Amino acid sequence: MIDVAVVSFAQWSAREELARNEVEILIPVVAEAIERSGIGRKEIGFTVSGSCDYLAGAPFAFVTGLDAVGAWPPIRESHVEMDGAWALYEAWVRLQHGDIDSALVYSFGKSSLGDLPIVLSQQLDPYYQAPLWLDSISAAALQARAWLNAGHDEGEMAEVAARSRRAAKDNPNAVVSGDQSAEALLREPFLVTPLRRHDCPPISDGAVAVVLAAGDRAREVCERPAWIRGIDHRIEAHGLGVRELATSASARLAGERAGVDGVDVAELHAPFSHQDPILRDALGLSNGVDVNPSGGALAANVVMGAGLTRIGEAASRIMDGRAARAVAHATSGPCLQHNLVCVLAGDAT
Amino acid sequence: MADPDVLEAPNILEYPYTRSTGPVIGRFFTSLRDGRIEGIRGTDGRVHCPPNEYDPVTGESLGDDAFVDVGPGGEVTTWAWVHRPHEKHPLDRPFAWALIRLDGADTAMVHVVDAGDEARMTTGLRVQPRWRHERVGDIHDIEAFVPEDA
Amino acid sequence: MAETTEPVTMIDTPIELRYRFTAGLAQSRFLRGVEQGRLLGQRCPQCKKVYVSPRGACAACGVPTDEEVEVSDKGTVTTFCVVNVPFYDQKMEIPYVSATILLDGADIGLMHLIQECPSEDVHMGMRVEAVWKPPEERTPSLESIKYFRPTGEPDADYESYGAHV
To answer: Is residue B6 part of a domain?
Structure first.
């Protein structure tokens, strides 16, 4: 296998971007990631993005993102209609060929343009579920109750939200942050019982970009590359009534295959508070692991970019020496249907 | 506050989609139109409702001989209460989303429970379908589930 | 109401999703200019090409284009097509000509309509000029230009537009 590392990461997010369109948001983020990477724009070997046209309601909207990249002379390029974490997976696979040694991965999207929970209902089974317009918050609420029924309580959910907000105070890209206690949050009304507003991710607009480099190239351009020591993703059935919702079999399997052990830091893509303990359990994370120091997806949730952001946040803590080994997780589909786990480490490990 | 120089316009996506059902989903909806619910038995003996077209273990196609009657009553395996229904939701008054495992089935279907009051809802609640008077052969032929003792 | 004895083979699953579309800074500036009767392009600081209608970045270089350059409302037809087929929501009477016009000063063509000449007369190299709506009828939309019409000038030299064909 060819060693691949994250060598730079850039992001921007806000509750709602009122002036710029998606591409205008993306341009400085891509420029910053390339600048920080030390690799020239025209030297990048492969470019791949993750986005979803349904966020803006515009078919092929992702194509305009290429204006931020500069696609002349023609470039090797790809796109996934998924979170950028899967675009990163494709870039990692592409780099295994050995003919190129760098890749640019990016995501962007404005969730504020539409009614996101209702838009996401249309990703469900087109015969049995989508015609009911089961929105994403309601679907997550079904999972939350299944998890509560398995012997947990809403206090744990509120703790996750409180912890996220506290950590997010140090994140300039956080949309939600603060010092509210779990007790205070529990006094808030329900949105879709058993979920309260703070159990749900905030609507966020933004963009994120990561540059990957292989082998010696990574060592040349980055003092402390965040090496990808393991990466795996697994998917479960799409029918909600077929799956065991209170646990995540796919995250567990992906974690085992990626080799999650001995990590100091975990960035978990848990857009809903109850999904945090489900994932911690699935990945076997001990209490000593620092989970979501960025605040996680409850602090800012650029849909299609939040998973890639977890990888970037975990990688940045390795690149700046705060952590030796980290795990980043991304999810796709309703109620943790599809899970990607990426283990990153500094040189010594 | 929005930048007044930046232009904005409404963008409404509307598609009059129709979908072919194929023989398995088609049979399920045909039964719904007749006021009956069917599941499909896989090679491992588990009954799926709503039915799968292919066996989840072996991948082979499942045909007419694998169908079995299920329900009409069943049990709520998990639920969520909607306080403010969206205009697109099946009901326009507060209701529960639920996963409902019909009698004789091993998997649950997503639908709504018109319980009237959140206090009626509980995991394990027995429910039965309230059929739409005029049925066309789709998931809405079940207007909602209601508590069995209603 | 469907036939009640035939098996179900199809279901209706209409969707309606409502969004806001935001034009962004660059396109808004361009369309506001059009409302004023001006065609405002943007030049790339690296390759120096002028984009009309601009999107805020140079698609070739991937850098922001922030130098505003006003271009002429006269230009050269680089390619065109004659639409003969009726389609849903069609506003123009067929046949009509849709063309890419390289405006004087721009490095990217603009798509618009050609009128005031028989469709068979339209050709590459033809010089055309915009016919604007009166100021009080203009909106931030390329519909503020009703169409382009031949100026009557001799054809542009191929070298002046050949790179944009």
So the answer is: no
Q: Do B18 and C11 touch (CB under 8 A)?
A: yes
B106: in domain:
yes
Find where tokens 């190299």 sit. C125
Chains in contact with C, where contact requires at least 3 CB pairs less than 8 Å apart: A, B
Residue C146 CA, chain-centre distance (Å), reads 12
Tokens of A187: 């006094």
How far apart are the C-alpha atoms of A291 and A301, rounded to whole Å? 16
Residue of C nearest to B8 (CA): C22
Which pLDDT tens digit goes with each residue over C95-130?
A: 899 999 999 999 999 999 999 999 999 999 999 999
Residues of chain B where predicted confidence (pLDDT) is lower than 50: 1
Determine, for residues C19 and B134 on separate chains, whether the beta-carbon distance falls below 8 Å: no
CA–CA separation, C91 and C86 (whole Å): 10
Quote the pTM value. 0.95
Which residue in B3, B21, B27 is closest to C10 by CB distance? B21
- The shortest C-alpha distance from A248 to chain B (Å) reads 16
A125 touches A334 (CB < 8 A): no
With beta carbons under 8 A apart, name residues in chain A contacting B109: 128, 241
Q: Is C85 on the interface with B (CB under 8 A)?
A: no
Give the containing element (helix H, strand E) for C92: none
Give me the domain span that covers residue A59. 4-114+204-221
* Chain C residue nearest residue A16, CA to CA: C22
pLDDT digits (tens, 9 = 90+) for A165-210: 999 999 999 999 999 999 999 999 999 999 999 999 999 999 999 9
- Is B2 domain-assigned? no
Question: Which residues in chain C touch residue A110, judged by CB atoms under 8 angstroms apart?
Answer: 22
Q: Could you read off the pLDDT of C2-61 as tens digits, one per residue?
A: 456 899 999 999 999 999 998 999 999 999 999 999 999 999 999 999 999 898 999 999
Contacts of C2 in chain B (CB under 8 A): 33, 136-137
- CB contact burial A44-58 (16+ within 10 A = b; e otherwise): bbbbbbbbbebbbbb
Compute the count of residue pairs across chains A and B with CB atoms less than 8 Å apart.
106
Nearest C-alpha of chain A: how many angstroms from C28?
Answer: 9
Count of the separate structural domains present in chain A: 1
Query: For residue B113, what are the CA distances in angstroms to B30, B70, C33?
Result: 22, 18, 55
pLDDT of res. C1: 46
pLDDT at position A349: 56
Domain boundaries, chain C: 24-164
Q: Does A172 touch chain B (CB under 8 A)?
A: no
ipTM: 0.97
Ramachandran quadrant class, C24 (left: phi over 0; alpha: psi -120 to 50; beta: rest): left
CA distances from C128 to A188, C74, C142 (A): 65, 6, 16
| Assigned domain for B16 exists | no
Provide the CATH number for the domain around residue A93. 3.40.47.10
Chain C residues near residue B31 by CB distance under 8 angstroms? none
Q: What is the C-alpha separation between A323 and A316, in angstroms, rounded? A: 9
H/E stretch holding A214? strand A205-214
CB of B91 within 8 Å of a chain A CB? The answer is no
Count the domains in chain B: 1
